[in-house]
């Protein structure tokens, strides 16, 4: 599920920039081990930070949701205005969309009384619709060709629904089904490992392998965050939402600074060039 496994023309969409046209940069990082580490850490922060803000700010769930949605909108405007992938802006958007996705699910459950089974199914349908519209429009769901405004809109909409779906599914398994936080971590980790095995050993499509794993990292990270932050009486380790959020944010920040400096999550050709390049003739 790394970038190297996703370079077939069908997976990348096969859309190159004609000679003489303004080159386009992909707006998403290469899928390396750093990508998955930061993604899981962001999902954990999304869970614990949402709980922390709801507890500490005194704005209520709706007020916190509005505040974080505004912050997310500001960062997404900055992300859309960049001409290429920028580690700081991109991962800030992911962290905030993780929080907002959690709050969307929590609002449905806590404020509107929607059962977790129903919200999980609804988010799954919404994500499926986004994927269907994205593929119908662009003939690809690959993150290696998020190089137009329309594709970027589809990408971030899909990311939002993956976080909301993962939150609802994680709560459904850990709490409603009484599996518990620690066992939920193990369960979702095994599910991700199974996707990797099917992909590498049996040739499951790289794009679908990526998106299935992307969805599963959300409940994995959320269950991990709950396990660390929740009181021991509720099956957690009792670190609290503040300590857990600060700890994971510190690690995320360090990794993002490292990637911004080394550019290890961009293609080799982009690192050598340092500027956008037009694909060579015949390059998928």
What can you tell me about this protein's structure?
This protein has 284 residues and is mainly α. The protein has one domain (29-263). It contains ten helices and no strands. It has helices at residues 9-12, 33-56, 60-81, 87-111, 116-138, 149-176, 181-202, 206-229, 241-262, 268-273. Helix 2 crosses helix 8, helix 3 runs antiparallel to helix 4 (87-111) and helix 4 crosses helix 6 (149-176). The radius of gyration is 19 Å and the shape is globular.
Summarize this structure briefly.
By secondary structure, the protein is an all-alpha fold.
Helix amount: over 70%
Strand content: under 5%
The averaged pLDDT comes out at 84
Alpha-carbon distance between the two ends? 19 Å
What features would you highlight for this structure?
single chain, 284 residues, mainly alpha, 10 helices, disordered N terminus, disordered C terminus
Question: How are the SSEs placed, and which strands pair?
Answer:
Layout: H1 9-12, H2 33-56, H3 60-81, H4 87-111, H5 116-138, H6 149-176, H7 181-202, H8 206-229, H9 241-262, H10 268-273
Helix pairs in contact: 2-4, 2-8, 2-9, 3-4, 4-6, 5-6, 6-8, 7-8, 8-9
């Amino acid at each position: 599920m790394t970038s190297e496994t996703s370079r077939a023309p069908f997976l990348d969409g096969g859309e190159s920039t004609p000679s003489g046209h303004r080159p386009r940069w992909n707006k998403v990082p290469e899928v390396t081990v750093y990508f998955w580490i930061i993604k899981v850490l962001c999902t954990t922060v999304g869970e614990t930070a949402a709980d922390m803000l709801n507890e500490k700010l005194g704005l209520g769930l709706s007020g916190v949701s509005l505040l974080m949605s505004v912050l997310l909108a500001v960062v997404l405007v900055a992300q859309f205005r960049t001409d290429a992938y920028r580690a700081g802006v991109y991962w800030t958007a992911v962290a905030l969309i993780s929080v907002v996705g959690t709050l969307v699910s929590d609002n449905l459950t806590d404020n509107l009384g929607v059962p977790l089974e129903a919200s999980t199914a609804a988010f799954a349908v919404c994500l499926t619709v986004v994927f269907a519209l994205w593929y119908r429009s662009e003939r690809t769901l690959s993150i290696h060709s998020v190089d137009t405004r329309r594709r970027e809109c589809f990408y971030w909409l899909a990311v939002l629904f993956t976080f909301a779906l993962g939150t609802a599914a994680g709560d459904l398994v850990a709490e409603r089904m009484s599996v518990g936080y620690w066992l939920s971590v193990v369960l979702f980790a095994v599910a991700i490992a199974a996707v990797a095995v099917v992909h590498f050993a049996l040739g499951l499509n790289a794009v679908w392998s990526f998106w299935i794993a992307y969805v599963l990292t959300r409940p994995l990270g959320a269950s991990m965050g709950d396990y660390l932050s929740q009181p021991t009486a509720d099956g957690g380790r009792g670190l609290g939402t503040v300590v857990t959020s600060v700890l994971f944010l510190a690690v995320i920040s360090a990794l993002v600074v490292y990637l911004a400096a080394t550019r290890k999550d961009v293609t080799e050709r982009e690192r050598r060039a340092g500027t956008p390049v037009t694909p060579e003739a015949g390059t998928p």
